[in-house]
Amino acid sequence: MLKSMYSGVSGMRGFQTKLDVIGNNIANVNTVGFKGSRVMFKDIMSQTTKGVTAPTDAPSGGVNAQQIGLGVSVGSIDTMHLAGSPMTTNNPTDLRINGDGFFLVRLSDAQTVPYLTRAGDFHVDAARNLVTSDGLFVLDNGGANITLEDDVVSFTIGQDGFINQTMADGTVQAGAQLGIGKVVNPSGLEKIGGNLYRMTANANPDGVLDPVTANSAEDGTGAIIAGQLEMSNVDLTNEFTEMIVSQRGFQANSRIITTSDEILQEVVNLKR
């Protein structure tokens, strides 16, 4: 069989994967805190039909190797952790990190390593816990659940993450401070759905995650902006351009298969 046919098949598979990623990016163009992905290709190992000949003292010039590529494969699917556009909501529990870092949330107290998220659309439940839309607890810089006092009538959240609570008697008290997760390699985080990421051994050394404070030059974390949300970082112009490229690449590889099939048909017809 012709090698070009299998190369065309590998190309179609690669561009199909790229179209799948593009489709997911476009579907999440309005998802709060979503980070788009991209597909990077790499060539498959080549078949060497003639080796290299080095120059000699005769003198004789060197001869390059002759190699035939065997197609393409997906090299990586990278999550692009670029900042998304801010959207002003004026809701005091809507938070945005203006810089590096992730909010820390967990499903229950039994969970030792919290999840990370950039989606700051939080709420206060009936027990005065600060939670996500799915009911996960938002953690402070000590790794504990954030709970408001019983006699709080209003509160504000500063850029350093401190919750300033106005009590029933009119006094203002400093409450908990939101915890921030700092990750060495954000692309190493694992997406688990629901705008959440799971810590891995390639995101932080040994997969360790210790809460730090927001707006800290020492920790390298961004400030917390209340009343705003970070929207998706997906650029529709770029996505549709890449979609056109992927579609044409898929068509070109399918034409390789068609042409290879026609050549094989000519070989079969030689006996006639």
UniProtKB/TrEMBL annotation:
It is found in: Bacterial flagellum basal body. GO terms for biological process: bacterial-type flagellum-dependent swarming motility. Transmembrane segments: none annotated. InterPro entries: Flag_bb_rod_N, Flagellar_FlgE/F/G, Flg_bb/hook_C_dom, FlgE/F/G-like, LlgE_F_G-like_D1. The keyword Cell membrane does not apply. Residues 97-163 form the Flagellar hook protein FlgE/F/G-like D1 domain. Residues 227-270 form the Flagellar basal-body/hook protein C-terminal domain. Its main location: other. Belongs to the flagella basal body rod proteins family. A flexible structure which links the flagellar filament to the drive apparatus in the basal body. This is Flagellar hook protein FlgE.
